[in-house]
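[Discussion] Sanity-checking designs against the backbone

I'm trying to build intuition for which residues belong where. Below is a structure token string of 334 positions. I'd appreciate it if someone posts a full sequence so I can compare it with mine line by line.
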């Protein structure tokens, strides 16, 4: 039954990918714009005139990108390319491929967004559980008001505040980019420290905003769980406080947190896009912003599709792991 459950969930994941690819193809078409014509006219306008043979150039590039075919053939070609991992060429950066550009930006976003999300989730969950426990130190109570206040601030706004304080005023951290200009990328201690120093402010803006929300949600679930009958029964049996705290309270209260983690990934990414743009961080968010600014349809499609697949896969993993976290959830219908 476990294997059937996983296969069924994986089928749902594949359905999500197909729907995402379909919407990703048709939504840009609703604008009615011709991305090739728009880009060529922009390039021609830089010289102060419109080239006389612009229409011939448009036809050549439309044939190159497959935009001269009927819409249904474009859709079938797009689905076939997506299955084979081909996301076409970037219009504004031709002849670079979308897959190569996304592949270069993706590790930066995974390192920034993945680590900050997991850290804020783990730290906020532990902090929220401790705040609800009667035996927690009193000094922890003073942490929550500022964390809850920071949780109400958008990622990008806190990023601007941190940039002003620690980059402009104190000049402790770099202002812009993923690493210093002229640095030689490589697995060296100097380059790694340079990358980490550039990532401190973007990561800090995401962690400080997310931490209070996770702590508040976990504290509420812990308060609810501590009032359950099985916790009262465990106390009546004389179990140690640490056993009740970890095995009875945290283990049950963390389940809604896990669900919230899957739902929050999309919201966190939406805010992280602006964080990357503000700090010039070379991730998916900055790449998407650049693609929108240059009206690069294929690059926009590639970035959005990659994000949807990533979020869908993360949700699939959490969905499969849920019965392992809570044995009360069966793989079969009752």
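Best answer:
Here's mine. Compare freely.
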């Amino acid at each position: 039954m476990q294997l059937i459950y996983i296969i069924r969930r994986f089928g749902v994941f594949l359905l999500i990918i197909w729907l995402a690819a379909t919407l990703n193809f048709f939504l840009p078409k609703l604008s009615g714009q011709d991305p090739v014509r728009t880009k060529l006219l922009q390039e021609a306008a830089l010289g102060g005139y419109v080239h006389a043979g612009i229409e011939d150039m448009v036809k050549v590039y439309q044939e190159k990108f497959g935009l001269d075919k009927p819409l249904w053939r474009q859709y079938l070609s797009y689905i076939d390319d997506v299955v084979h991992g081909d996301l076409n060429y970037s219009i504004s950066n031709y002849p670079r491929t979308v897959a190569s550009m996304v592949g270069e930006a993706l590790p930066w976003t995974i390192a920034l967004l993945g680590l900050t999300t997991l850290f804020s989730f783990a730290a906020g969950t532990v902090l929220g559980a401790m705040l609800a426990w009667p035996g927690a130190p009193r000094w922890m109570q003073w942490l929550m008001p500022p964390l809850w206040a920071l949780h109400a601030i958008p990622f990008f706004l806190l990023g601007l505040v941190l940039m002003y304080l620690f980059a402009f005023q104190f000049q402790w951290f770099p202002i812009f980019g993923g690493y210093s200009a002229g640095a030689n990328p490589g697995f060296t201690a100097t380059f790694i420290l340079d990358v980490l120093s550039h990532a401190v402010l973007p990561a800090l803006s995401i962690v400080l905003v997310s931490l209070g929300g996770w702590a508040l949600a976990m504290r509420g679930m812990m308060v609810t769980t501590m009032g359950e009958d099985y916790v009262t029964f465990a106390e009546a049996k004389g179990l140690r406080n640490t056993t009740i705290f970890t095995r009875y309270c945290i283990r049950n209260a963390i389940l809604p947190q896990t669900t919230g983690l899957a739902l929050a990934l999309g919201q966190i990414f939406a805010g992280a896009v602006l964080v990357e743009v503000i700090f010039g961080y070379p991730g998916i968010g900055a790449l998407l912003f650049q693609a929108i600014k240059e009206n690069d349809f294929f690059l926009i499609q590639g970035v959005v599709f990659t994000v949807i697949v990533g979020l869908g896969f993360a949700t699939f993993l959490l969905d499969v792991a849920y019965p392992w976290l809570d044995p009360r959830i069966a793989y079969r219908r009752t």
